[in-house]
Amino acid sequence: MAELALDVALRREAFSVSVRERLELDGITGLFGPSGSGKTTLLRIISGLEPAAAGSVSYDGDAWQAPGQFIPAHLRRVGYVFQDGRLFPHLDVEGNLRFGAGSGGRRIAFRDVVAALDLAPLLSRRPTSLSGGEQQRVAIGRALLANPRLLLMDEPMSSLDAQRKREILPYIERLPDAFGLPVLYVTHSIDEVARLASQVLLLAAGRVAARGPVADVLERIDLWPVTGRLEAGTVIEAEVEQHGNGMSSLRLGDQRLRIPVGDVAVGSRIRLRIHARDVAVAAERPGRLSIRNVLAARVLRIDAEDPVYVELLLSVDGRHLRSRITREALEELGLEPGQDVFALIKSVALEDRGFGEAGGAPG
Amino acid sequence: MGELELGPVWLSLQLASVTVAALLVIATPLAWWLAFTRTRARAVVEAVAALPLVLPPTVLGFYLLILLGPAGPIGGLWVELTDSTLTFSFTGLVVASIVYSFPFAVQPLQAAFERVGRGPLEAAATLGASPLAAFVRVASPMALRGYVSAIVLVFAHTLGEFGVVLMVGGSIPGETRVVSIAVFEHVETLEYTQAHVLSAGLLIFSFLVLLAVYVINRRMPFGAGYAVG
Lengths: 363, 229
Fold this sequence. Notes:
The structure holds 2 protein chains of 2 kinds. By secondary structure, chain A is an alpha+beta fold. Chain A has helices at residues 39-47, 93-98, 110-116, 132-145, 162-179, 190-196, 214-218, 224-227, 327-333, 347-350; strands spanning 2-11, 16-25, 28-32, 54-59, 62-66, 69-70, 78-81, 150-154, 183-187, 199-204, 207-213, 233-244, 247-252, 255-259, 269-275, 279-282, 293-304, 309-316, 319-326, 340-345, 355-357. In chain A, the strands form 4 sheets. A 6-stranded mixed β-sheet of chain A has the order 7-8-9-3-10-11, sandwiched between helices. Chain A has a 5-stranded antiparallel β-sheet with strand order 2-1-4-5-6, covered by helices on one side. The longest helix of chain A is centred in the middle third of the chain and has 18 residues, at 162-179. Chain B has a single domain, classed as MetI-like (MetI-like fold), CATH 1.10.3720.10. Chain B contains 11 helices and no strands.
């Protein structure tokens, strides 16, 4: 675990960034916020690409920047995966990969990176002949081979379509464990944060709006202006119990959640992001029903959101769920805090979106 | 002067080569600065650097004559240092050619560096490359087309230089009598055969050089820009 201490400010004509935080970096830390909130600028400050930034940056006990002192980017050993890859067009893939190799010692071996990112078939290709996903894999490999102490990733998947994202996600997920280095991952996608990150720093208008474990930050209602109302929901962790008929059972306390999760080892814990709009509520246990997931829950709180809708915060054996229902339904069911209800979640709503293996999974 | 002399040809090639070499060294840092600076002074510097494009060669030659002459600030210093004059010498011709062809080196290089942009240099920095290493290993190979353009333009432009040479160098055989001057003198003295041979030679040579450049440019394995996504 390494500490990143930031006390930095950068003013531009259009916006300013001002951040003062101490972060314990371990695994993947999400840097999340809407477009224009200063995420990329903050990454650039950390990497040393913004000499105009004022303040101080230190990492793992080394001062990278302090008043009157500035270690330039090429001496910081910070890996940076840019949004657009930025591969060197005059070098082939191997030339790109070896560009920074050896500059920070040889802790990370060429063959390990090639194996981990499946780069062997690409080595003699030109960057321009690669697909977007392949380019980003090469860019990640190139950054790793420079033996960084910290890896910064700036929306590495934003230019990829859904199919390519699914291809590259597992590679990114494995980075911290496989190469033993912390990752700071910028994104404006809640689903990516939920899947990849263990902790998240939420930026809004150049300032830190919230930080903490992903589940806690994403369910805070006061952050909706930042996280976006339609994306409101919660992240829960559950253990894969068994597979069958293309469906999987996940253990959630004493209850079971049935969804198709794909090829995930039995016994591992995965994170699910459940959107508030995908959760319905019944006052009594419903009978014959196509919805596979009926969970006993308790209403913790009712947040009046707008004239038509309200959001319920539910507890399922201590895990939080959000449900978005109409005011009309709220009144008809007579729901109040403390009341026992049943939360209905369609399996379809959970398929293929925002689930990922949680850290420290066995197998 | 009945027979053909090759002296002016060699002198022209020599002058063009030396000018190219000198300008690559001088123009690279300036073009780099112009491509990446954010100061307002940039427009002023750009305008000054482009002046030789629009000034009549006689005007340029006149000022150079004054600057480089034994009474001028540069020429006077030269006389003190070397005991010889800059004007009407090969060295003086080189200095004049550097000034005269300056924009033909700076502009293609600046455009090439701008096409490379900050992106690849930042990427190189995060991979541990010092600014100099990033220039050598990333910026210059990516700006190769710009270098080819600059070399060819400066070379050709120096070969074709007449007015400035006449004013600064005169026509001293073996020292300042380059091809364009020789052609002029042959025509003046109605030696059309020699004028024909030299002119045609220059024409064919220039065409072949330009052809080679365009072919090479087309076959380059990569453009300067990035293919994103």
